[in-house]
Design brief:
Blueprint (H helix, E strand, L loop, with lengths): L5 H6 L19 E2 L2 E7 L14 E5 L16 E9 L8 E6 L2 E2 L1 E6 L2 E7 L5 E4 L8 E9 L12 E2 L7 E2 L3 E2 L3 E6 L3 E10 L4 E9 L5 E7 L6 E8 L3 E5 L14 E8 L6 E6 L4 E6 L2 E6 L2 E2 L2 E6 L13 H13 L4 E4 L6 H10 L2 E5 L9 H18 L5 E5 L10 H11 L4 E3 L16 E6 L12 E8 L1 E2 L16 E2 L3 H21 L2 E7 L23 H15 L2 H4 L8 E6 L6 E5 L2 E5 L4 H6 L2 E5 L7 E5 L5 E6 L2 E6 L4 H6 L2 E5 L6 E5 L6 E5 L2 E5 L16 H4 L2 E4 L9 E7 L8 E5 L10 E5 L8 E4 L4 E3 L2 E5 L10 E4 L10 E3 L2 E4 L4 E4 L12 E4 L17 E5 L8 E5 L10 E5 L8 E4 L4 E3 L2 E5 L10 E4 L10 E3 L2 E4 L4 E4 L12 E4 L37
Parallel strand pairs: 11-12, 25-26, 25-34, 26-27, 27-28, 28-29, 30-31, 31-34, 32-33
Antiparallel strand pairs: 1-14, 2-3, 2-4, 4-10, 5-9, 5-14, 6-13, 7-8, 7-10, 15-16, 16-19, 17-18, 17-20, 20-21, 22-23, 23-24, 35-38, 35-46, 36-37, 38-39, 40-41, 42-43, 44-45, 47-50, 48-49, 50-51, 51-52, 52-53, 54-55, 55-56, 56-57, 58-61, 59-60, 61-62, 62-63, 63-64, 65-66, 66-67, 67-68
Helix pairs in contact: 2-3, 6-7
Length: 1017
């Protein structure tokens, strides 16, 4: 497979990659040693072949496995040999032998003398070979050992046996080899760090052979322009060069200054040129959200996952034009970021990123295997070398330490260490913590991977980024590395389908940026790579698969939106009633019907009531919204298995997330689009008269609601005045006592006094009007013609509750919540202070905590029995059993042979309890952790007595864990417990009286209970 540059590389094979290899520290004199070298196999412990002619030839610097090398095979140990002559004009100076990179361990001999060695396949190294030189012809031999993934070093995605998402190895010399003359006291490195607020460039000059020389640093406009600042100092000290009124570097304006550094004084004379850019990068709080700021302003970082592989050169681009082209192409598509994925490029790649204006997240190449202590130390050393080599490049804005637990090593410790090396950049401890990475808990960003996505973490103390998403595939016949076997996360059938699918993802990113604080996203990937067909281009770079103009326009829209975030936000009026009009069919509205959200024309008054909703602060995030039914208070628009329904709140965090939606500018450019909080990237969609949360699916056989046709219009809604208007009405059947979880106690208006300000207190239940409450459609609770009210509109812990004139205030709103009542504005619950039983104790607000002091019945609602019978296990012949038929509180619930006894006869109640022997099944001590055991106890409606049907079993919504037979035991007497929900026989239980669930094929054992897993890169 050839690229558009293969022919040029072949034609220039005697002098490949002739460009100066170190653009940020240049000297006039140098000599390339690229080209033909002798080559041969090597063995462990073998003496170098000094003076011997090797039997093969290799084209340096192409890896031995590559076609351009002329060898095209892998081997662990190898010899390189060639001769060279030092120009006479270099007389009196030292000669450095420089290697851009050799994978992985290199030992170098000159004229039979070992002059140096190096370990690490991704960083440059230099050897002063002056003492080993002779006049005329000189011999250099390089011995290389590269075990690739069978060793302990950093290898990225190189594998001896490539396949899937791992690729061909790149062994041996794979970057330019060159000679360079220097004076004895010479500069070895420039560390340049811009200080934009201070109007200066901080420069640290490193050197060799130095002692007492001074340093002069001069910054100037490019191309021989005017000097902007000069400063002097010493080797290894920080020199502040003034750069007043700096012209800042950015992707839109990649301005680069020139720099000249000279050693002065006795033994001085060395001088190097280079360039730098003035830019800042930081994470700061903006409007309550952690934002990544470039030069003090938020700019969404929209990039691609660039792995840097080539079909002809593997790790080594065939030419410098090819190296530049990949960056230029991504820039042309409208991206402003490249995540250089677990590979380090030659220094000229970063030069082109600096010059063309492309932000870079630089990954440290991963190890293939979890290292021992020595391997971890080597990993850190190689990381340090990478940072030192590239720290002056303005394009690099973040160091990505590790990826998806690939051979990971101490993520938190490494992140802290890297931040110490370079505090001027962002640092990420692990990319992909949601799917398969161990989060060290530190660093500047929190990074998710989701395929195809997009997705975003919830707002948190770090900046949210989506480190990988996409993976949309399209196979182009005749341009496949492995014909007929291409891999992608979601295959498309045409260029148009691929383009449209990406456009939908781009729009979703825009809304995630607004609603969840997403700062950046990285699409997989610019080109196909070997067996992967995820690229916007084929692996050979011959075919672009997408509509470039459409992709560029979408990316430009996303970046423009990030520069004007305020215009993207949509604010809805809290605690007011609204209706949702279908933007593409304005005679249709969203309404609830038989418990489901549908769209239809609206006629009767009942239709209008069903199409009217109260805008509430989001149950899971108050920056978003929840929509309460105006005629079914306590019921919310909510998603179940992606279908939007109307459901009564059970007060759990799971329900809250599924009933929370974030508002953003409509996907058509007008109106509003509503994103699911629990499933980021999915919007409300009108699909065939049904309302779903939907992603723009594309791909093969998408679900009807995810089809790309009409997606943007179907996910856009108009917010209108409420179709139903009028005074809040009492809810039928919702009048009665509000009973405490403490036996015999009720919420009581003190002395039945109707005056505003009368305390609402705990008192013995007595059935009087002072204890008769009615739930109203506006979310209020009323007794004696007045409302339950948080005193003084307070929201803090300890705010006392009273009776007050009903005014629709937020402090008079009460939502059923996990067996309690929550005030949505304060996010605190109706509470009996210290769970006292003393009559007259005034009730208060307090943080919701699920204790008995916050358990209250709904007025007029008595739990009703439902299905009755055995709760059968998928393990043949076994049932849930109250031990020995003992009805005492605290009796365990165990597994036992099904026998139909009363201690195995369970009834499901409408309050989500499951009862036997007149008691409720619950977790011991209100536990929510794995291995918490089951017992029966008096029914209180407490959180630990709640059970909902889930995946063929029962889930406790508070803990999010499932009723579990430990270890899939079939032993009588095994006490049931809680465990993370997963697909196992031990978590399959029938509804009371139903047939036993089917056995689970190849069920995992209890000892192997997995974490949730996702197929990712």
């Amino acid at each position: 497979m050839t690229t558009p540059w293969t022919a040029a590389a072949t034609a220039n094979i005697a002098n490949p990659l002739p460009e100066y290899p170190r653009p940020q520290m240049t000297r006039a004199d140098w000599q390339s040693l690229n080209g033909e070298w002798q080559f041969g196999n090597a063995s462990a412990g073998q003496a170098p072949p000094v003076g011997q002619t090797l039997g093969e030839r290799i084209n340096v610097p192409y890896p031995v496995e590559s076609a351009l090398s002329g060898v095209q095979r892998h081997q662990d140990r190898m010899w390189y040999r060639r001769t060279f002559t030092v120009p006479d004009s270099w007389s009196g100076r030292h000669t450095l032998l420089n290697f851009g990179a050799v994978d992985q361990q290199a030992t170098v001999w000159v004229n039979g003398t070992q002059v140096g060695s190096h370990t690490g396949g991704y960083d440059a190294f230099s050897i002063d070979v002056t003492s080993a030189l002779r006049s005329g012809s000189n011999e250099v031999i390089v011995g290389v050992y590269d075990p690739t993934d069978s060793g302990s070093g950093a290898v990225g995605k190189q594998r001896n046996s490539p396949g899937g998402i791992m690729y061909t190895a790149s062994s041996g010399i794979w970057q330019t080899v060159w000679l360079e003359p220097v004076v004895p006291a010479h500069i070895t490195r420039l560390d340049m760090t811009p200080d934009v607020p201070g109007g200066a460039l901080n420069v640290v000059v490193r050197g060799a052979g130095t002692g007492g020389q001074g340093v002069t640093v001069t910054a100037s406009l490019p191309g021989g322009g005017a000097v902007v600042g000069t400063a002097t100092g010493s080797i290894d000290g920080t020199i502040r060069v003034p750069v007043p009124n700096a012209h800042l570097w950015s992707p839109d304006d990649p301005f680069l200054y020139d720099v000249r550094v000279t050693l002065t004084g006795t033994g001085g004379g060395d001088s190097v040129g280079g360039y730098f850019g003035m830019r800042s990068i930081a994470v700061k709080t903006v409007d309550g959200v952690q934002r990544i700021l470039l030069n003090g302003s938020f700019l969404f970082q929209n990039g691609m996952l660039d792995q840097g592989f080539w079909p002809d050169g593997i790790y080594t681009a065939p030419t410098d034009d090819a190296l530049k082209s990949d960056i230029a192409q991504q820039k042309n598509w409208g991206f402003n970021l490249i995540r250089k994925h677990i590979k380090v490029e030659p220094q000229r790649w970063y030069y082109w990123a600096d010059k063309l204006g492309m932000l870079v997240w630089q990954d440290m190449p991963a190890m293939a295997n979890t290292p021992n202590t020595a391997g971890g130390t080597q990993f850190v050393n190689e990381f340090h070398a990478m940072v030192d080599q590239h720290r002056s490049s303005p394009s690099i804005v973040m160091w990505v330490d590790e990826n998806e637990d690939m051979g990971y090593y101490d993520p938190a410790g490494v992140a802290t260490t890297v931040k110490g090396w370079d505090p001027s950049r962002l640092v990420e401890n692990m990319s992909g913590v949601n799917c398969c990475g161990t989060d060290g808990g530190n660093g500047d960003v929190l990074d998710y991977h989701t395929y195809p996505g997009p997705d975003s973490p919830a707002p948190n103390a770090r900046a949210n980024v989506l480190g990988e998403y996409g993976g949309l595939g399209l196979i182009v016949s005749g341009h496949e590395y492995h014909p007929g076997s291409g891999f992608a996360y979601e295959m498309q059938t045409s260029s148009a389908e691929l383009t449209n699918r990406f456009l939908g993802q781009s729009k979703a990113l825009e809304n995630l940026m607004v609603t969840r604080g997403l700062n950046a996203a990285v699409y997989t990937e610019p080109t196909d790579v070997e067996n992967e067909s995820n690229g916007f281009m084929t692996y050979d770079r011959q075919v672009v698969k997408v509509d470039v103009n459409a992709v560029r326009a979408a990316n430009q829209e996303l970046l423009a939106a990030s520069k004007n975030l305020g215009a993207q936000r949509v604010s809805l009026p809290l605690n007011t009633t609204v209706s949702f009009q279908v933007a593409g069919a304005t005679d249709h509205y969203l309404r609830h019907q038989s418990g489901l959200a549908v769209t239809s024309t609206i006629g009767s008054d009942l239709d209008k009531q069903d199409a009217t909703f109260i805008v509430r602060p989001g149950l899971a995030n108050s920056a978003c919204y929840s929509f309460e039914s105006s005629n079914y208070p306590g019921d919310y628009l909510h998603q179940t298995n992606s279908r939007v329904d109307k459901s009564a709140s059970d007060g759990t965090s799971i329900f809250a997330a599924d009933a929370t939606f974030c508002a953003a500018r409509g996907n058509t450019g007008s109106g509003v689009s509503l994103l699911s909080w629990s499933q980021p990237g999915k919007f409300w969609r009108n699909s065939g008269g049904q309302v779903w949360i939907s992603k723009e699916g594309g791909g093969t056989n998408p679900a009807a609601q995810d089809n790309a046709n009409g997606y943007m219009a179907d996910t856009t809604w108009n917010i209108t005045a409420p179709l139903a208007t009028g005074t809040p009405a009492p809810v039928a059947g919702r009048t009665g006592a509000v009973k405490s979880g403490l036996a015999g106690k009720c919420a009581d208006v003190t002395g039945a006094n109707t005056a505003s300000g009368t305390p609402v207190a705990l008192y013995d239940c007595n059935g009087t009007t002072a204890q008769t409450w009615t739930a109203y459609s506006d979310g209020s609770l009323r007794a004696l013609g007045k409302c339950l009210d948080a005193t003084g509109a307070g929201t803090g812990n300890g705010t006392l509750l009273e009776l007050w004139d009903c005014n629709g205030g937020s402090n008079q709103q009460w939502q059923p919540y996990n067996g309690a009542y929550r005030n949505p504005i304060s996010n605190r619950c109706l509470d009996d202070p210290k769970a006292t039983t003393a009559n007259g104790t005034q009730l208060e607000l307090w943080d919701c905590n699920g204790t008995v002091a916050q358990v209250w019945s709904l007025p007029g609602v008595t739990p009703a029995p439902g299905a009755t019978g055995l709760v059968r296990s998928a393990i043949a012949g076994k049932c849930a059993d109250v031990t020995a038929g003992n009805a005492a509180n605290g009796t365990t619930v165990e597994l036992w042979d099904c026998n139909g006894g009363t201690n195995q006869t369970w009834t499901a109640y409408t309050d989500r309890t499951i009862r036997a022997l007149g008691k409720c099944m619950e977790t011991i001590n209100s536990g929510i952790a794995n291995n918490t055991k089951m017992q029966i106890s008096d029914c209180t409606g407490a959180p630990n007595q709640q059970w909902i049907a889930y995946n063929g079993g029962y889930r406790n919504p508070v803990s999010g864990r499932c009723l579990d037979d430990p270890g899939n035991s079939s032993t009588n007497g095994a006490v049931l417990g809680l465990w993370d929900c997963y697909d196992s026989q031990g978590q399959k239980w029938s509804q009371p009286g139903a047939a036993a669930p089917a056995a689970v094929a190849a069920s995992v054992s209890g000892a192997d209970r997995p974490k949730a897993a996702t197929t990712t890169r």
